[in-house]
TrEMBL record:
This is FAD-dependent oxidoreductase domain-containing protein 1. PANTHER family: FAD-DEPENDENT OXIDOREDUCTASE DOMAIN-CONTAINING PROTEIN 1 (PTHR13847:SF287), SARCOSINE DEHYDROGENASE-RELATED (PTHR13847). Required for the assembly of the mitochondrial membrane respiratory chain NADH dehydrogenase (Complex I). Involved in mid-late stages of complex I assembly. The gene is Foxred1_0. InterPro entries: FAD-dep_OxRdtase (IPR006076), FAD/NAD-bd_sf (IPR036188). GO terms for cellular component: mitochondrion.
């Protein structure tokens, strides 16, 4: 009788608090089961299920055939399926070709081609096609007289890599964007192709859906500790130790599942440095420390019905402050990155 009463009380409480029915507040993004247990073994454990983690998982499965490693068992571990603090979903979603580093330009050119043909790469049979809501729009970098030479050198590098970038004088700038105050401007560079912005949440889900369809596993949990060969009865030298197990802690629990693995990919984003402090990693394996730590970033959103409208580029001024249009209803978003 007591059991029945308690059962009734439990059901009544659950009905009162629908969000309490699940660890994740009753809402779970598609593709992630609230509590899938990790497998006992995986060849590769990817720590972090942001866009980088899922992209790594996708490419591992895509390229496994090339290296005759069919059937690679890949596990993506994400501690927060709501992605409330992940850079991927908090980002501005911009893609540009205008970088000062050769490698960044080359990666961005690859990304632009990849995104253009995204359905060929990430499409899954019998699933809806992917539309990342791409908004083509050039980045517009403004330069003061002091910064003009550097801007010009960057554009030369970008053009040498095949990027389509225009250099504008203040007069040309004013003609093209009459709403810009060109006082104190010496020059501007404007991307003519392969620049704009898209919805990073859609891209993340597209990678996840495709990787899952290729056999990648995922689980909710936090990797907090490792066991390495330095812990063996006959231990290897700490600097040549290999990770043997990743300990995955279940959400809201002290319970963990050890997953035997050969390779761990650190895709923990801003927490990548923190992961190297995980229990069980010999200090020698983590030297030099990763210079990555979470920093406060912000993006403001504002409504400005008389703003530049559809012709608004992603503008970066001489201070590094940036803004862009957000939709077509007079909304804008922008911010400023902290100094290095
Ligand atoms: C405000 C802002 C604006 C940006 N704008 C742009 C832009 O316009 N264009 C552009 O290209 N880039 C932009 N970026 C950068 C871009 O968002 C990031 O480079 C990219 O999203 C990084 O992806 P990630 O997967 O490495 O990290 P994240 O998306 O942060 O994913 C890392 C994941 O790892 C998980 N995790 C961490 N530790 C553990 C653990 N121990 N166990 C399990 N899971 C763990 C976290 O929960 C997180 O979900 C911006 C970033 C910010 C912050």
């Amino acid at each position: 009788e007591l059991g029945q009463s308690l059962g009734r009380l439990g059901r009544a409480l659950r009905d009162q608090m629908p969000a309490a029915g699940s660890v994740w507040g009753g809402w779970t993004p598609p593709g992630i089961h609230p509590d899938p247990r990790p497998p006992d073994e995986a060849d590769v454990v990817v720590v972090g299920g942001g866009v980088v983690g899922w992209s790594v998982a996708y490419w591992l499965k895509m390229l496994e055939g090339r290296y005759r490693r069919h059937g690679m068992r890949v596990l993506v571990v994400e501690r927060d399926p709501t992605y409330s603090r992940a850079s991927t979903v908090l980002s501005v979603g911009g893609i540009r070709q205008q970088f000062s580093l050769l490698e960044n330009i080359q990666m961005s050119q690859f990304s632009a081609r990849f995104l253009r043909d995204i359905n060929e790469h990430l499409g899954v049979p019998n699933e809806p096609p992917i539309d990342i809501q791409f908004q083509p729009s050039g980045y517009l970098f403004l330069a003061s007289p002091e910064g003009a030479a550097e801007l010009e050198a960057n554009v030369q590098l970008q053009r040498a890599e095949g990027a389509q970038v225009a250099l504008l004088s203040p007069t040309q700038l004013k003609e093209r964007f009459p709403w810009i105050n060109t006082e104190g401007m010496a020059m501007a560079s404007y991307g003519l192709e392969d620049e704009g912005w898209f919805d990073p949440w859609i891209l993340l889900n597209a990678f996840r859906r495709k990787a899952t369809s290729l056999g990648v596993h995922n689980c909710c949990g936090e990797v907090r500790a490792f066991v390495t060969s330095a812990n063996d009865t006959f231990p290897s030298e700490p600097e040549s130790a290999r990770i043997k197990y990743a300990h995955i802690y279940m959400p809201d629990s002290l319970e963990y599942q050890p997953v035997a693995c050969s390779i761990v990919v650190n895709a923990a984003g801003a927490w990548a440095g923190k992961l190297l402090e995980a229990e069980g990693l010999p200090g020698e394996l983590c030297q030099p420390p990763l210079p990555i730590q979470p920093r406060k970033r912000y993006v403001f959103s504002w409504h400005c019905p008389d703003g530049p409208g559809l012709s608004c580029p992603l503008l970066v001024d001489t201070s590094g402050a940036y803004f862009r249009r957000d939709g077509i209803a007079g909304n804008y978003l922008g911010g400023m990155s902290p100094p290095e």
